[in-house]
Design brief:
Elements lengths: L1 H16 L10 H4 L6 H11 L5 H13 L12 H8 L11 H10 L5 H13 L20 E2 L10 E6 L3 E5 L3 E3 L6 E3 L2 E5 L4 H7 L8 E5 L1 H7 L4 H5 L8 E3 L11 H9 L3 E4 H6 L9 E4 L4 E2 L1 H8 L4 E3 L7 E6 L4 E6 L19 H4 L10 E4 L2 E4 L14 H13 L1
Parallel strand pairs: 7-9, 7-10, 10-12, 11-13, 12-16
Antiparallel strand pairs: 1-6, 2-3, 3-6, 4-5, 8-14, 13-14, 15-16
Helix pairs in contact: 1-6, 3-4, 3-6
Length: 407
């Protein structure tokens, strides 16, 4: 009995010391009675005895995920696993050696099912186990998922990430390592509609609504944030990067790509800031105009947007800096704003309704509100990650989308 207690304690120490946890905190899935097939425990034992490969052990873990025995609300990008699966000749380590001991103890009933599942869930979320995302099933077949018509989606390259209000997918292996926590994160994700949730989508969509509403994709802002763009200049890494080239857009945090996908999925017309710059009168075709993180705009854009009678600024920091566009060279040039050309210049248009500070850096949106100022509506936080909502934020997504539809 004493030996068992020592082994049990050691198992928990090994499992959680690496992730900085000193106590076992069971989650909802582990608290419930789970039915783990005997073959999964057998596989764990065979792996512990070096009779099978770690990939075969991981196949058992992937089965538990796909059958909701292990709950992973948001799949990590899994950079190591994606590299290993793309080139079978690589000897990538998908599981730390010490996990094999724990698997062996579980296989011989020296630790409980719930404790083992809790530990494995946490290690997956911390991107310590190399799960093959291509083997993780979505809630519905990807062939049935509807993606935004404004974005090009190659379904054969997509892997399932999460499901809540929207279905969320990523390109397999499209990862970057976050220096803050060492976990691989998705560079870009794609939203889709679940055909089984159409009643909920109908509450907030414009498909059958007579109003004409457009969402403005911030193409110029996307380009400004790219490599050799304005932010290399601000950091002092590039003296001439106040002029930067056009870039092929991806759905990124800085250019509010998730909100654009969400709204175009739900029937909002899409226009770009290029279209407004070339034809400012285009906005008069719409009863309602929704601005995203349109931080960098031309003077013609600024005048057209601020003169429209019904504008919703879904993100703070819009209309912050003036640029000039050269369509022959396909470049944008910073003219004024963002502490340029003089340090004391904040908003390049001296716009009195600028709400960059203090709202731009509130990405949690715990107290999100819309307020009216100067005939337009503005939000008090940066809601990009809300569109990747978990179940706790489900109602906030509905609140945002209902407001945009009804206002």
């Amino acid at each position: 009995m004493i030996i068992f207690q020592i082994r049990y304690s050691l198992a928990l120490i090994i499992l959680f010391s690496i992730i900085g946890s000193s106590i076992l905190i069971p989650n909802s899935s582990a608290q419930e009675e789970t039915q783990i097939p005997d073959w999964v425990k057998n596989v764990a034992g065979w792996w512990a005895d070096n009779d099978i490969s770690e990939k075969e052990f991981l196949a058992g873990i992937e089965y538990l995920i796909n059958n909701n025995i292990i709950s992973i609300p948001f799949m990590p990008c899994g950079a190591v696993a994606s590299i290993a699966t793309s080139d079978p000749t690589l000897e990538a380590k998908l599981i730390p050696d010490w996990v094999k001991n724990v698997a062996g103890w579980w296989a011989t009933d020296q630790i409980e099912d719930a404790d083992f599942l809790n530990g494995i869930e946490h290690l997956i979320k911390k991107d310590i186990l190399g799960i093959d995302n291509k083997k993780i099933k979505g809630k519905v077949p990807i062939e049935d998922v509807m993606f935004s018509p404004a974005w090009t989606v190659e379904k054969d390259k997509m892997v399932f990430v999460s499901s809540s209000f929207f279905e969320i997918y990523g390109i397999n292996g499209d990862c970057l390592i976050d220096p803050a926590d060492g976990i691989s994160k998705w560079k870009s994700t794609t939203l889709g509609l679940n055909p089984n949730k159409m009643d909920k989508y109908n509450e907030v969509a414009l498909w059958n609504d007579p109003q004409s509403a457009a969402v403005v994709y911030p193409y110029f802002t996307y380009a400004a944030y790219e490599s050799q763009g304005f932010y290399d200049y601000y950091r002092g890494d590039c003296d001439d990067c106040t002029t930067t080239k056009f870039a092929e857009p991806k759905s990124k945090y800085t250019s509010s790509g998730k909100a654009h996908q969400a709204l175009t999925l739900l029937g909002y017309d899409s226009i770009t800031d290029i279209q407004i710059d070339k034809n400012p009168g285009i906005l008069q075709q719409f009863d309602k105009v929704i601005m995203l993180h349109n931080e960098y705009v031309t003077r013609a854009m600024f005048d057209a947007i601020t003169s429209h009678p019904n504008v919703i600024y879904l993100y703070p920091n819009a209309l912050y800096a003036e640029i000039e566009v050269n369509y022959v060279d396909q470049t944008i040039t910073l003219i004024r704003g963002h502490n340029y050309p003089e340090q004391e210049i904040a908003n390049g248009f001296d716009w009195k309704f600028d709400n960059t500070h203090p709202y731009e850096y509130d990405s949690l949106c715990l107290n999100m509100e819309f307020y009216k100022v100067g005939g337009a509506w503005m939000s008090n936080c940066y809601p990009e990650n809300i569109f990747l909502t978990n179940d706790e934020q489900y109602n906030l997504v509905l609140k945002i989308l209902k407001f945009l539809k009804d206002i």
